[in-house]
Amino acid sequence: MIQFTVLGEAVAQGRPRAGKNRKGKTVVYDPGKSKDYKQYVRLVAQQHAPKMPIEGPVVVFIKVYKPLLSNMSKKRREEAEAGLYRPITKPDVDNYGKAVADALNQIIWKDDSQIVEMRVSKFYSEKPRIEVRVEVLEEMGA
């Protein structure tokens, strides 16, 4: 099992952008904010990475802790910190999962196609962060 925490506010995978290169050819690229965040996640993950990227099936658990809202009452803040009040705002959980999965390619696993199960959850916290846990599944007959 591999487990680590990425401190700071999580950035969900943004919509791909299209533009033209110098030769006039259309190119698709990652938005800057998404690209920078994935690089940050990679840097943190490298400190917990196996010597060689995992090759078999993996299960990934991601907990996204969003910052508390400034207009929350003290009672609501306590409920949020206890996990009783959860974010139902954008971005969607699948966009957080995609950003993390892309970032961990060639670091934790060879390719994110190896993910056979993923659970992404959103919470509020005074300490924004993401917590990542990767479990390697033993293949049948192995």
What tags apply to this protein structure?
6 strands; alpha+beta; 3 helices; globular; four-stranded mixed β-sheet; 142 residues; two-stranded antiparallel sheet
In what order do the strands lie side by side in the largest sheet? 1-6-4-5
Q: Residue ranges: pLDDT <50 for 5 or more in a row?
A: none
Please tally the β strands and state the result: 6
| Beta-strand content bin | 25-35%
Specify the oligomeric state.
Answer: single chain
Structure annotation, total helices:
3
Task: Please summarize the sheet with the most strands.
Answer: 4 strands, mixed
What's the overall geometry? Answer: globular
- Secondary structure class reads alpha+beta
- Taking all Cα atoms into account, the compactness measure Rg is 17 Å
Instruction: State the separation between the terminal residues, measured CA to CA.
Output: 18 Å
**Percentage of residues in helical conformation:** 10-25%
Q: Secondary-structure element sequence?
A: EEEHEHHEE
